[in-house]
Amino acid sequence: MAEVLVVGSVAFDNVETPFGKVDDVLGGAASYFSFAASLFAPVKLVGTVGADFPEEFLGWFRSKKVDLEGLQRQKDGSTFRWVGDYGYDLNVANTIDTQLNVFADFKPKLPESYRDAEFVYLANIMPALQLDVLEQVRKPKFVGLDSMNFWIGNPDTKAILSEVIKKVDAVFMNDAEIRQYTGSYNILVAAREILDQGPRAVLIKKGEHGAVAVSRDGVFVASAFPLESPQDPTGAGDSFAGGFMGHLTQSGDTSWAGIKRAMAYGSVVASFAVEDFSVRRLLAITLDDVRNRYAELQKLTALEAQLLSST
Ligand code: AMP
């Protein structure tokens, strides 16, 4: 069975939303991605944590059969930490503190068994590390990439990010990030600028308003699943990407039709992730839960046939 490799942050998060507050919970782009993708396909994780990272969290990865051979545990040093909060507009994350800690000088050497991965996801982390990992994978079939304002706003890391973008198949960014990266206000115009740099698809995440895919084959709008009581949007983007890449890995269908289907799976998985803090909800769901919600989303978004005549 095909596998998906992910590199990205594995973190302690302190998060506050209008609905609650948690400290020292498991976070990180690669964590959310791994649990989301593992619903569909085996996951291989590349990253690093400090000696302070609890055995309990490692057990959660193992319980979902996430391969941890590429997760380095550093004896001296602390795990990456992110502190953030949200107001009632859950689409806007406010970063209060980012501590790279063990990631600051992390130089991974991919285990031999990782280098033949066909599906690769460069989750949010310093672009130099994304590039380093990508260069160690032999012949990937489909590579996805995410980033954020923290890396786009710094000219040095942005320059490396632009190098990585040229080498990937799909770029995942939210609407604010794609505007910041390209300097173009309109997201369709911005997406075309990124397509001109090489990728086949640009997937623009719009939080509770869903996601838009832009490729040379067309544009596709995937609705988000409407929820009455989201609790914590942290990790929604990574869970969307995990559902997307996990499904693509399972189906092997990287055509435009396959990409559109994967987007719907991404939306469904992300909708579960935001129903609780940290990775709690992702750990609790099964593929059957995903399938049932996919069917509901299909009904919610089907358009009726047109009735107007053309006079
Ligand atoms: P998302 O809400 O999907 O954009 O991702 C949230 C996760 O990204 C959190 O769990 C954080 O630990 C992690 N994160 C926040 N800032 C960074 C950063 N600069 N680099 C890598 N990961 C980050």
Care to count the β-strands?
13
For the CA atoms, what is the radius of gyration?
18 Å
Structural class: alpha/beta
Percentage of residues in DSSP E strands: 25-35%
Number of helix segments? 11
Bound molecules: adenosine monophosphate
Within the largest sheet, what's the order of strands?
A: 5-4-1-8-9-10-11-12-13
Distance between the termini: 55 Å
- Let me know the average pLDDT: 96
Q: Which outline best applies?
A: globular
Poorly predicted runs of 5 or more residues: none
Helix content: 25-40%
Order of helices and strands: EEEHEHEEEEHEHHEHHEEEHHHH
Describe the sheet with the most strands.
9 strands, mixed
Description:
With 311 residues, the protein is of the alpha/beta class. Helix content is 37%, strand content 25%. It is built from eleven helices and 13 strands. A nine-stranded mixed sheet has the order 5-4-1-8-9-10-11-12-13, sandwiched between helices. The protein has a four-stranded mixed sheet with strand order 3-2-6-7. α3 packs parallel to α5, α6 (175-182) crosses α7 and α8 packs across α9 (256-273). It binds adenosine monophosphate (AMP). Adenosine monophosphate is lined by residues 9, 11, 13, 27-29, 82, 98, 124-125, 148, 150, 234-238. Residues 9, 11, 13, 27-29, 82, 98, 124-125, 148, 150, 234-238 line the site of adenosine monophosphate (AMP).
